[in-house]
Amino acid sequence: SRDLCIDQAVVFIEDAMQYRSISHRMDAGSMRLYRCYYSNACQRILNFTIFCILALAFIETPCSLTKTADVRYRSLHWEPPCGLTEGVEGLCLLVFMADVSVKGFLVGRAQFQRNVWLLAYIVVLAVSLVDWTVSLCLLCQERLRIRRLLRPFFLLQNSSMMKKTLKCIRWSLPEMASVGLLLVVHLCLFTIFGTLLFTVGEEDEHEKKERLTYFQNLLDAFTSLLVLLTTANNPDVMIPVYSENRAYAIFFIVFTLIGSLFLMNLLTAIIYNQFRGYLMKSLQTSLFRRRLGTRAAYEVLWLPRAVLTGGFPSHRVGVMPQDFLQVLEKAQLSSSQKQAIMEKVRSLDGVLLSADEFQKIFSEVDRGVVREHPPRPCYQSPLLQSAQFLFGHHYFDYLGNCITLANLVSICVFLVLDEDVAPSDRDNFVLGVLNCVFIMYYLLELLLKAFALGPWGYLSYPENLFDGLVTLALLVLEILTLAVYGFPYRGWYPEMRGLLSLWDMMRLVNILIVFRFLRIIPNMKLMAVVARTILGLVQNLRAFGGILVVVYYVFAILGINLFQGVIVAPGNDSLAHDNGSAPCGSFEQLEYWANNFDDFAVSARGPLPHRDILEEPKEEELMHRLRNHPHVRLCR
Amino acid sequence: SRDLCIDQAVVFIEDAMQYRSISHRMDAGSMRLYRCYYSNACQRILNFTIFCILALAFIETPCSLTKTADVRYRSLHWEPPCGLTEGVEGLCLLVFMADVSVKGFLVGRAQFQRNVWLLAYIVVLAVSLVDWTVSLCLLCQERLRIRRLLRPFFLLQNSSMMKKTLKCIRWSLPEMASVGLLLVVHLCLFTIFGTLLFTVGEEDEHEKKERLTYFQNLLDAFTSLLVLLTTANNPDVMIPVYSENRAYAIFFIVFTLIGSLFLMNLLTAIIYNQFRGYLMKSLQTSLFRRRLGTRAAYEVLWLPRAVLTGGFPSHRVGVMPQDFLQVLEKAQLSSSQKQAIMEKVRSLDGVLLSADEFQKIFSEVDRGVVREHPPRPCYQSPLLQSAQFLFGHHYFDYLGNCITLANLVSICVFLVLDEDVAPSDRDNFVLGVLNCVFIMYYLLELLLKAFALGPWGYLSYPENLFDGLVTLALLVLEILTLAVYGFPYRGWYPEMRGLLSLWDMMRLVNILIVFRFLRIIPNMKLMAVVARTILGLVQNLRAFGGILVVVYYVFAILGINLFQGVIVAPGNDSLAHDNGSAPCGSFEQLEYWANNFDDFAVSARGPLPHRDILEEPKEEELMHRLRNHPHVRLCR
User: Fold this and answer.
1) For position B610, what pLDDT does the model report?
2) Which residues in chain B have their CB less than 8 angstroms from residue A246's CB?
3) Contacts of A63 (CB under 8 A, 6+ apart)
């Protein structure tokens, strides 16, 4: 029974660290399954499956693996053989079926029936399976695949943060809708105004027709003004009537002021406020889950024990550090967190831990582990010591930055100088020599820094890692270039040997050098702050990114179904003089041939709650929740 | 001496109510001048002078009073005779000279020398005068007029709120500049990347040339990406390379993500934060000025006096209400404020006012005076009473709104029906009759409401005022139409009689009806809130509006000086088939002929500080300031 309690504490602590709910089965067998399900391997398999099923859209008919999307130059789509993508999809669906059954089993029947997401998961899976069977029966010849539209659901249901964001969007819909309504009223009124103002009287027809380009009828006027809200057609829509009478500009100024400046910004402000409040609240829930988990672990671990207070024996309640250590040993936490907690517990040497102290240990860990760099190597010789001081100093970094900047400037100078020379006539001698010299310096810098900080010390700085990797890539490229094309000489013209031409090699080297210039970011204070802010934003906005991916995905699939093949490549004769024949602003004149509906954008996924300045949950709330938990009582 | 103190108190209270500084001369003569200077009449003259000198730009050569700005259709500019605008300008400058001398005299020599704005005022006036003299000497033939660029200064210096805003902009410049620098670095790096990525190799020339439309050289690439930051050329800039290889889209996606989404929004957030903080601080200063003014008034008014506390005579210090009333009687405050304060003071019947009570009376007034509507008339007859109940009920308003909506719909229906009919062939019979009926209803509604609420009660609601005015205008128009064109009959075709054709009359009526539809705004809760928010914004953003006017003005004048006459009307032959010959996207093809540099936008002025949730200034601070004031002591 004591072992079961220890195991339960392990599960509770893992739940707490991952901000998971503790409402699930807690018997020995279920716990083994639970820990296995939430183990890194299983979760990675699940994530990979979700990635696979989403990525399938790139390979399925119509396949997106052509070099260009331009209907004029595009090669024929590769048709995957029937059964290939369906086979992969079948495997994915199998994994999801296993996922939903394990999840359903673990949360128990009562929780399962209340969980809308799990029920929806089953429905989506069932529909997908039926659709998949139909697909196979029709030998992949069916036009409509409903299951493609449903796929983003698997991404949604697997992320608690994305579910929260979705709920938040649903909650702010009424407010957004009311400002949306205002916008519509604003648009409608101005549409009627505009149509009445800019109608053609009984005067000269030719001149007046022009005035009506954007205000022919109510629908045209509405569309024009709707686009004007985004300022996309800003001067154009005004030009015909403005060139008639300059007072007409007032109409457009008033419209833009009210619509774009006030109402659109009001919408932004409302969305911002709603989201901030709601996200704060949902992060609070995450924190509450963590507190609940740790408290539950405490509840199953505590033991009464006699202690000496002021020479008299008395009873005190608490967790024994050795129990705690045993739990920590078993729990799957990140190694740095585990290390920090265990050191803390060991430093208590045998004193019972109260509930408060127990909680405190976990909140301490959350403050973030400061990463320490390995110590610098100690050299004996004073010469080596002064060299170490010199090359380990941050002025040496600045020198490196200056040299990188000089390299960048040299590339720019050659870009400007060779602007009018055809690429095949360019003499790469000087730039080749310069790049050679610079790359030698970069290598030297790398070695000297590694000498000064020690190899591990060098690698412990992320900026050095970046720097080193790019430098090594540069070195490899340069050696390859020299090996294939020999040392630079006057008239080192671009020519083709092997995989890449000298021209492309040089471009690649130059691009890498520009890329290497990014190492200055941590050296400039402001840039570092902004870069860190942006990285933090990306972290915190991952859930939003996920929602965006879902929306993009659904619209891309819808677009393919609706508009595939609508854009047809122009005939040969119109291709020859398309600029002359097509009216300005038309699809043909703008050559938007690559803008069709045969592919779509998808990007990475991954949601994790972050922690902000949140209120601490109250003790009573925690205890109230725990009193209703059936498994915590078992251990008492 | 007591009279002088009363007068000083009057001036202090006026200063307080207008948030003015109290550091100025306080002897009897100066005070008379001061009150005269800040009287409504003098300030109106000054404001009108500023308006005049700014508005001169419309009339001066090149005169903006043509109907259209289109170089193809524009009539010749009217040339004002030499001396006309210069005469007006001379008068304005005379007023400003009087203004600066009065201001300088009133603040005293010490203050004057420390006041940068006043010194700059004198310099600007001197330069303007010299320039004006040169103009007159050259008989208005000079090309460059520096004084036109300096004119917005008169607007700036006359408004304390605009000066504060300007200071705020100056303070936030460093932060903005640093993010601006980041943007520049971002742009530069991507420019070099882009130029290296999208260069032409040694392949087929024709196909590749196209790829280089936007990335020919460093400068072109920089411009393209700079415009891409605003998303103005969003798909176009990407199309040539994207149609070559779809992977190139990643370059543009990353650029837009970092540039437009992160850095631009970061800039907005920084500006927002800086301004909020600084404006709050400067509004605090305004509040402090008010407190200081009222406290100073208290200090010159208080008298020691024996009062009975608990049956024993004791001394208490305070202001006698009759003195206060005397001061209020003399002070120039808005009548509603004055009324409220005087009632408050009278209700104290003779008790001495302490400093706190004195301050409190003024802050009470600031809370806003609730406007009361006059009582409804009382009718004797029960029939009239029930009619009054019926037509005074807000359901009657709703009925009116519904009828207005119906009218709007009928106009829309006719707009759609007559879409394809030439205006001269349209039969206005049905619409004419409908409008007639509706206008009769509007008149009836007006009369019934006036009957129910009484004439003054009716006018006390701003929405009724708006409604009534528009209805009256509609009535006048309708009567005019009927008088000139007779009653509507089948085939009531538009024709020309008198000033306006029937067609134009009908349009005007329709536009007014759409305009009248705005009366629904106060009836819809959300709309009313948004409308009030927008009105409040307009009030509070007046200072920013003023700064914008200044910037627009200066750039408009600069534009005229630099680019006047650069855009030349096309010859007759190119006018005939301009769409065919001009390349797409060019000035000629887009017919931007009206976009030249011969006129500019100017708008209203007027700054007043508003009051937000501000901290109250501390008692000690006030007293510390007053202790250093030379004139408050005189009365003690």
Assistant:
1) 30
2) 66-69, 594, 599
3) A77, A78, A79, A80
For residue A610, the model assigns a pLDDT of 30
Q: Taking CA A373 as the corner, what is the angle to CA A368 and CA A377, rounded to the nearest 5 degrees?
A: 165
B586 interfacial to chain A (CB closer than 8 Å): no
A69–B594 CB contact, under 8 Å: no
Exposed, middle or buried, B631 (CB in 10 Å: 0-12/13-18/19+)? Answer: buried
A311's CB contacts (< 8 A; 6+ apart) are: none
Would you say residue B154 has pLDDT above 90?
Answer: yes
Q: Is residue B613 very low, low, confident or very high in pLDDT (cuts 50, 70, 90)?
A: very low
Chain B residues 536-575 with CB within 8 Å of chain A: 537
DSSP state of B45: H
Residue A201 CA to residue A212 CA, distance in Å, equals: 11
How many whole angstroms separate alpha carbon B234 and alpha carbon B238? 7
Please count the other Cβ atoms lying within 10 Å of the Cβ belonging to residue A26. Answer: 23
pLDDT at B594: 62
H-state helical runs in A232-353: 234-242, 249-256, 264-301, 321-330, 335-346
- How far does CA B369 lie from the centroid of its chain? 24
- Provide the pLDDT confidence category of residue B619 given band limits of 50, 70 and 90: low
Chain centroid, CA A156 distance in Å: 14
Q: How far is CA B38 from CA B46, B54, B291, in A?
A: 10, 22, 19
Q: Is B315 helix (H, G, I), strand (E, B) or coil?
A: strand
What pLDDT, on the 0 to 100 scale, is given for residue B597? 60
Scanning the structure block, which residue is given the tokens 């029930």?
B386
Closest in B68, B197, B530 to A182, CB measured:
B530
pLDDT at position B498? 62
Q: In this structure, are strands B303-309 and B312-318 parallel, antiparallel, or unpaired?
A: antiparallel
Q: What is the Cα–Cα distance from A13 to B325, expressed in whole angstroms?
A: 74
Confidence of residue B229 (pLDDT cuts 50, 70, 90): confident
How large is the angle between the packed helices B160-197 and A394-417, nearest 10 degrees?
Answer: 70
Ranges of residues in chain A whose predicted pLDDT is under 50: 573-579, 599-615
Encoding tokens for residue B168? 């705020």
Would you say residue B611 has pLDDT above 70?
A: no
**For residues A560 and A62, is the Cβ–Cβ distance under 8 A?**
yes
pLDDT tens per residue across span B543-560: 888 888 888 888 888 888
Closest chain A CA to residue B181: A527
Task: Give the DSSP letter string of A596-607.
Answer: SSS---------
Nearest Cα of chain B lies from the Cα of A589 at a distance, in angstroms, of 8
Cross-chain CB nearest to B504 (options A182, A201, A242)? A201
Q: What is the pLDDT of residues B466-484, one digit of tens each?
A: 999 999 999 998 888 888 8
For residue A99, the model assigns a pLDDT of 94
Asked whether the predicted pLDDT for residue B615 surpasses 80, the reply is no
User: Of B66, B68, B405, B435, which to mutate for an interface test with A (greatest number of A Cβ within 10 Å)?
Assistant: B68
For residue A62, cis peptide bond before it (omega within 30 degrees of 0): yes
Residue A46 token pair: 């699940």
Indicate whether B579 pLDDT > 70.
no
What is the number of CB-based contacts under 8 A between chain A and chain B? Answer: 181
Collect all residues with Cβ–Cβ distance below 8 Å to B134 and sequence separation of at least 6. Answer: B142
pTM above 0.80, yes or no: no
Q: Which helix (H) or strand (E) holds A308?
A: strand A303-309
Residues 189-218 of B with CB under 8 A from A: 189, 192-193, 195-197, 199-202, 216-218
- The ipTM estimated for the assembled molecules is 0.77
Q: Do B195 and A415 touch (CB under 8 A)?
A: yes
Per the DSSP assignment, residues forming a β-bridge with A319 are: A353
Angle of helix B218-229 relative to helix B234-242, nearest 10 degrees, comes to 130
